[in-house]
Each structure stands twice: as structure tokens, then as C-alpha cells.
Amino acid sequence: THKRTDGRRTATFKPHFLGTNLCKFLFALKDLLARAGVQRHRRMASRTATLAAGLVLAAILEVALSSPLPAFKTQWRQATLDNFNAISGTTFRQRLLIVDEFFDQNAQDTFMLFYTGNEGNIESFYNNTGFAFELAKDLGALVVFGEHRFFGESLPSGDKSWDRPTIGYLSVEQALADFVQMIAEVKQQYGTPDLPVVAVGGSYGGMLSGWIRQKYPDAVTAAIASSAPTRMVQGEVDGKLFFEAVTDDFKNANPACVPQIRKAFDAFDKLAQSKQGRSKLKQQFNLCELKSDDDVTQLRLGAVNAFTTLAMMDYPYPTQFLAKLPAWPVNYACNLSLEANSPLEGLVRVFDLVYGGQKPLMETEASVEGNGCLPLQSVFVECADQTGCGVGSSGKSWDFLMCSEMSYTPFTNDRTDMFPPHAWNHQLLTSYCKRTWGVTPRFAWSKSALGTSASNVFWCNGLKDPWHVGGVLELSEEQKVQGNEIFIIPEGAHHLDLRGRHKGDPASVLEARKRITNFVSRNVARAWADLQIKSMPEQVIV
Q1: Fewest Cβ atoms nearer than 10 Å: which of 60, 78, 82, 257?
Q2: 494 is catalytic
């Protein structure tokens, strides 16, 4: 990518690279990986290097054959740190991305498509929400991606953003208020005060889209909530169901995969009981350190999280969202496990598939022949969210949100799922949150604070996505009358419907996008019609 003088970022691809240098590059990469000794066993070196080269090829072809995203303009606003305190004047810089190339501000049928930013850098969600731009192009919309406070580059106090009392201003309520003000400011910027707004988001962003329609119906006409586990954070879902859903994904891919994974974790736990065994695990997983019981727990949770990532990202084509993964990565990981020389080796291969291409390698005195090793903290950080918070600054912010008001407690039990038992409940979460942040979780807070009766929300969930167990899967007659709709994608993983169109898309996701388009068109047309009625002069009846 490169940055233009007008502040937009565009992606460029040179076709001659693919034909002239790609093969040389791949063979060089394979040789480099094999000689670098990054793999745990020499007998795995050639196969792993070939796998890495193949994934690079798939990723390059994916970029080459996909439609480029439109360029965006980066803007900054002065956000109020406390939106609910008229006395406090503290502000911080908050980022938003704007695409206006499809927008005609004088048209009477257009609208703003506002993406409610998630728990991360807003550019990552921009790059993985191609359907927003297809929708905008088809319907002539202005597209705005708002970055969530305390994530990405929208940090109130830089490296001190997570200190008390500043971190206390990280909340769903503050984020929604930011977005409402952001919408108003963009409308003013384009001179379109009456422009209808449709919120859109996936996962946590999907929950925010539903909530912003619920909390601020005058600011947002309708909302698209994809893969939004709203019911989970409202305390309506049994904690065992999430990892049971992850297990079902692998069972559906290959019934032999689940017992193989169970055997792998059994082998892992047996080795973890002795110093010698831990040394072997350290070597197998290519870690810089693995000494304490806490280290072993962290590694085990990281391995479990690898399977969660694969289930969430089980797309029908290669992607680079949460990790660099091949098409249908659950099937791919099952094959890696079953073709390995032992169950533990299969677990290591799956671990490498998820973490190997995205984590930094470090040179240490303990590494053999100068080989790189993985710092455990760069792989997985144990936190309030047992499905994973991520690492780095975004992980810290999500950890706090989990402790304050986005609290849920999924756990594993090795009965309804394929993972080692790991207890997690309200008491354990509360203890962690008090110890880490000095706060007590407000379980099901969103149910009372944000409400449950929003209108004009399109809820979409994919059955391959383990988060669907916490989503809105059915509607009452009253909710249907209020303009809400749902759609289930049998072959859909985590907010697949929001990704850009691809030749590998299953028919069900194409139907989902069609229904979303119709939903948006109807609500925008209704908003314009209501505006015209309100603007008509009142007739005096004599």
C-alpha cells in the first residue's frame, strides 16, 4: 500500500511480479525456512517450508485476483473523554475512515453506511468488510468507519491510556456516544443534516450496531448486526456451548479429527507433569521459555485458542484476517492432525498453522544453533476472555471491557467439547478482574443498560461460526412487526456475509447479502418518505 498526497491509502499490485519472480521467491523461501531450522524436527523442515511457501502463494494469488478496495480518507476528530460530564473538557484524537466516491450528497435516495468499530485497529476491519463498499456502490452511499476509543490509534493518553482513572472511560456507552457524535459531524461536513444512517458491524461491532439503533433511534435508521453474540453478554447462554460449537466444526469436517485432538492434549498434559517433559514441549512448540505451571496453562490455552481461530475463520478461500490461513482451514487442520506421526505432532502443526506466520521470532542464548524461538507472550495472553483477548494494546483494552460490562464465561470440560477441562465462572472471572483491574464485572449489564427491544435490525449468523450460539437466531412476532429480520448461513463462518464477494462464496451467503441489500433499501426509502411527509406544510381543514 502507499499513501497519496490527499491522505487516501491505495493498494497496488504489479502483475509482472507474479509471472517473473514468484517461482524464484517461493523456492528461495522454502530453502530459507528449511535451513533456518525454525521447525522443531528436521524431518518436518521440508514439509513445513513447502506448506509456508504454498500459503504465501495462495495469499499472493488472493490479492491478485480480488477486487481492490476503494481508497479511504483518514480524518481525526476531537472526542470528549467523558461524553456524559458537561464539566469535563478533556479530549483526545479519534480516527475515522471515509469513502465518498460512490456518494451523491444531492440525491434523495442515498444514505450513510456507518461501521461501528470493533476491538482493534479500524483499518483491519476496513480491509475485511468488502461488502460495505459493494453495498455503497450499488446504492450510492457514503461509507464511514469509526474507530472505537482505546483501540487502534484512538488512544486517549498514549501508553498511559490503561492507567486509572483514564481506563474507566472505556465503555460501550461512551463508544456509542462517540459514534453518534461522529455521525453528526460527518453529516455537517457534507451538508446533509437529514441523511439516513445505517449502522453495520460484525462480532462486537455487530453488537454495537444493534445497540446504537436501540439507544439512538433518531440518529440511526437501521442496523446490520453480523455474528453478534448479544445474547451471550446478556447472560442467556450456557458457558459450555461455545467450545462445544468449536468441537462440532471439527467433528463435521472429519469425525476422526476430534478423538485425535483429544489424544494430542492428553499427550501434552502427560509431558507437562515433569521437568523433562516440559523441556520437550518447549522444543516441540519452539518456545523461548516454558518453566512454571502458569506457563503450561498459558500454552495450553493458546493451543485451544488456535482451534477457536480456525473455526471462526473457516472461510471457503484463503484469508489473512486473524491469521494467514488457507481455504476451509478447519478441514486443512484436521488433515494436518491426522497425517502427523503422532497426535502431539499434529497439535504442533495446527499451532504452527495459526501462530507460526504471525508471531515474532527472537534470538536467545538457549536456542539451538541460533534458531529463533517464540516468546509465549507473543502467542497467547491469558485474560478475562477465555476465547482470547489477543496480544498488544488492543488485548489490554478488550480485557478491561470483559471485566467491566462485556462479561461472559465460556469454559471447556472434555465431555461436550474436545479440550482439556478448564473451569471458568462468575466467581473466577470476578477474582481475576479485581486482581488485574480493580473492578467487579457487571454481568448482563447490557440487558438493562442498553435494552433488548431494538427495531429495524438485521441479525445474521453463520452456523460454522462458534459465536452463533450467542446470537439472535429467532424472532418473536412482535420483533418481526418492529422491522427486525434474521438470516442463518449454514456454510457461514464469522461475519462471512460482510466480506467482499468471492467466487468461492456459498449460495447461502449470496442470499444473505441479497436480503441485507433489500433490507437497507427498504429502510432508507422509508426514511426519505418519512422526511418528505414531515417537511410538507400542514393543511388547514375548514
Answers
A1: 78
A2: yes
Reported pTM: 0.86
CA distance 241 to 168: 31
Torsion sign (Cα): 64, 504, 118, 324 = negative
- What would the grid cell of residue 215 be? 439507544
Average model confidence (pLDDT) for the chain? 88
Q: Which of 178, 236, 176 is nearest to 207 (CA)?
A: 176
Pick the catalytic residue from 178, 465, 497, 505. 465
Return the bridge partners of 248, or none: none
DSSP 315-338: -SS-B-SSS-B-SSHHHHHHHHHH
The runs of H, that is alpha helices, within 254-366 are 257-271, 275-284, 293-312, 329-339, 343-351
Q: Are 154 and 95 in contact (CB under 8 A)?
A: yes
Which of 154, 161, 203, 397 is catalytic? The answer is 203
pLDDT tens, 27-45?
454 454 444 444 444 444 4
| CA–CA dist 356, 38 (Å, integer) | 10
Q: Which of 148, 422, 494, 495 is catalytic?
A: 494
Is the sign of the CA dihedral 117, 121, 126, 128 positive or negative? negative
- 293 counts as catalytic: no
* Whole-angstrom distance, CA of residue 345 vs CA of residue 336: 9
